[in-house]
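Escalation from tier 1.

The customer reports that the assembly of five entities below gives different structure tokens on two consecutive runs. Tier 1 could not reproduce it. I'm attaching the input and our single run for tier 2 to review.
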Amino acid sequence: MIFLWLGRFFIIFSMIFMLIGIIGLFRFKDFYLRILISAKIETVGLLAMLIGLIILSGVSFASLKILLIGLVLMFTNPLASHAIARSARVNGYLSPWEKIDD
Amino acid sequence: MINRGAIKNICLFTLIWILLNEKLNGFVVLSGIFFSVISLYFTDKVLLGKSYSQLFHIPFTTILAYLIYLIFQIFKSGLTAIPKVIKGDCRVKIVDYHTPLNSQLAISLLANAITLTPGTITIEKKGNILSILCFDDEEITDDPELTTTFSKYEQILGSLKS
Amino acid sequence: MNFLELVLCGIAIYTVFSIIRVLLGPSIWDRLLCLNVVSAKIIMAIVLLSVISNQDYLLDIALIYAFLGFLGTVLIARFIEKRGD
Amino acid sequence: MMNNSRSEIISTMTGLFYPYILLLGFYVILNGHISPGGGFQGGAVLASVFISRYLVDPEKCVRIKILQTAEKLLFLAIILFAVLIGISKVMIFNSLTPVVYLIIMNSLIGIKVCCGLTIIFFRYVFYEGGI
Amino acid sequence: MTEKIFLIGLIILAIFAVNTRHLRRAIIYLGIFSLVSSLVYLFYGSPDVAIAEAVIGSTITTVLFLVSFKKSRVFIIYYANADFNSSDSRKTIKARGQILKSIEKFLIDHEFEPQLIMTTKSYELILASEVFDLLVYQDNAQLLITGPDEYHLDGIETFLKDKSFKDLEICFGRCVEYEEFRS
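Tier 1 run:
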């Protein structure tokens, strides 16, 4: 019973995090701020959701597989965001805060 | 070619093979060892051209401590980033960070951890200098919190050889 | 309606909002960033679907996405970095 | 600004995933008869290892001639195997159980698809101008 | 209920991918299309197709689109401003956006792929060091459009003549020197 509510707590927590990430995607006017905060808060939501599902499904091969998915995502997801941020920076995409500084 | 690192890696791959198959009997274990040897050999000879076990030699305790500290740090800085979303406006700057680590793999793992935490992203790695995109707060000038976090990662990853 | 089904429905709505950001996004990097966000959402939806319907084999597809999903993003990012929007 | 075109972090970390992607491909091929997947899907997973190797060192090419020969031989082997099984079914009843037949057929198809998709990828990238 | 939301998203993405003028955006739209469609395959009970869509859609088709997209004829437009920090009037900015947009429309109609690069370099430096097909140079309310290729410049001139931009003064130069344009 306690595990059921603990899992549900984690899932609701992740849904709140993702909602804040989506709000941030629409609220910020600058690409660098979006990738810095919103996209990363989405990752927090993803990990919390996977932890909640592991707690809900108990000890079995399926929950171990979900754990494996989480581990893999922790290594591959930063590579993708690093590639995007680096590509924008190398190309010289300027954001408003830099135009003011120059 | 046969050394302790390769045997450790083969054990790990067999474990993952059993996990993928979702059952545990003699046939699965034998086929797991067979395919682990094949994929390790193929990686060494064709894909990498070097020894996988020497290139990616990570002790188990290191990776465990790294992951636990990383998850803790992700949730912590995720909570601190929420007010910034609600406020809706921030300024961003790029700082250069010089790490004392000298292994290629350790620096990459450090950069991965930095990227995964909300609020900081690694943009470029040149040697052991990392360019990091982070907030530009007026109150905090020297980022002491950021530096202590990074030095904790470096303490964990310091056992990796180059 | 079950609790997990409600969560799945919520993720679907979030996905639609991310797609709207993809269609609006001013620069091409905004669109690429939202591709990353949508792919995370889809992985989550697949794992939820497998837990709801008790079919373990659906997790293989999520695993394949987790391993190979970043390849497409990295290739597109690499292509764009020389040529701009 | 920053001039060199490839990132060191990506080229270091992608090497970590090679054996895992290979294991996943073998798993999808071998369990094609009881779970979703099979020859084509597993072969595509195996071929994506070569695509991720392109991220690590873009100059290194595979020998396409060898892959082409292997693909042709495997195509012949698939047809010959099916014909031989058909003949032996007529001559001797139930010489081979269906499970073994399916596994051998799936793995032949998987390696053939892997060769084919790898040839397509390297052909496009190295002879048509690259990315 | 849930799958209907994803189906509506698929239709929207397909319409945008077909109708967009920029091919780079179409590649990204198709990437999301393949992601969502693989989930929809799962809802209707065909995991086999979903795995194939996941692998092929995320890796191979992306490479094929990118390589074939590189073969399209790219037309490089450089845009530079005389003083970068100048706060132009609202009308000027709007008119400049309209001009750039109509040049892009002209190029797409003639089967080119426009590529707009905004720089902060000076006029002489761009002429000396960069490779370009069209250079748009703005000095307050004056606009100089020049380029090495005579043929397309004539086409753009006749195309822009029909439309009237009242807030900007457009000047076409074949090999105009910077001082002549200033005086």
